[in-house]
Amino acid sequence: MNTQHLLDALTREGVLINVSVRYWRATRKLSPEDLGLDPDNVTGRLICLGHKKLLPKEALERFALVESRAHGLIESSTFPFLSGLGHFLPNNKLEAVTSKLKELETEFGFAQQAFLDQYAQLRLQASAEWREAAQRLVTDPDRLVAAIEASFPEPTAMQRAFGFETQLFQVRAPERLELALVTQANQEQVIAARQKAAEEASVQIHRGAESFVADCVASLRQQTAELCQEMLDSMRSGKTGVHQRTLNRLVRFIEEFKQLNFVGDQQMESELERVRQEFLSRSAEEYRDQAFARTQLQEGLQALSATARQLAQQDATELVQRFGSQGVRRFNLAA
Questions:
Q1: Which of 304, 155, 308 is nearest to 218 (CA)?
Q2: Contact 39, 84 (CB under 8 A)
Q3: CA 30 → CA 53, 194, 235, 238, distances in Å?
Q4: What is the rounded average pLDDT for all residues in the chain?
Q5: Where is the domain boundary, 113, 142, 169?
Q6: Which of 169, 199, 230 finishes a domain?
Q7: Tens digits of per-residue pLDDT, 229-246?
């Protein structure tokens, strides 16, 4: 199969997204001198002084929460592309994900402003707490406190330590690398080096495209199997048996599957839709009251789990080729 057509199909069906969340981590790596120790008597093989927090954990909790939510959103809504080079976001998820990221960026901005407004007070409080702790920890507390206080950036420099950035890229293999800003004397050598780098990058991306698409198919199928097993475990171990949250979880997963199914895995999607129609029209209360229906639900989930696992292990070449044909059609229309 022409992998360029596969890349064209990927370009048509989604984008690569990268989210960067930066904030001051308020840590310092202590040196032996900070603790009043002789560096010559401290061996790295046995003693690791490590990083110490300059501020209490709660001072940065809002940033950590936003960062966790942003990364969690990316992990749940995308597929890792070429060993983490980027994250592939299908078009069907693009609006929802970027909208949520904008909300998180706004929340991050509020947290940043609140932190900067309190920064001077936080420094004073931290200095007092460290002085109290230093008197118990070291023989020269003044030296340790001075080192801690020197680790706090000036307020004017703090703004650069924060950032929430979302970047979107197209999936594309380079044909050549531009030579702007290259001096005439180095032109010939740089042309050869850059052309070689472009060719190697192109080969790497083309080689990884087919396995990436196949991995996306297998990942969604495996997630289906794992969800079914988790639902069965919950029904067997829970006090209420079948809980409505458990059923709702499958409903949400089916919708998520459709949005993430950019490859067009109709077989797995059809299996999920069949389960929706057969088993999700009843409420959890009905299942708890009807033993026969409850047994049917469990057998249906077991069957779906087994089917999903089997499909996840199958060769997805035919599905990948069919997906790649979208790139062929796009090329022909453009021609």
A1: 308
A2: no
A3: 10, 43, 51, 49
A4: 82
A5: 169
A6: 169
A7: 999 999 988 777 899 999
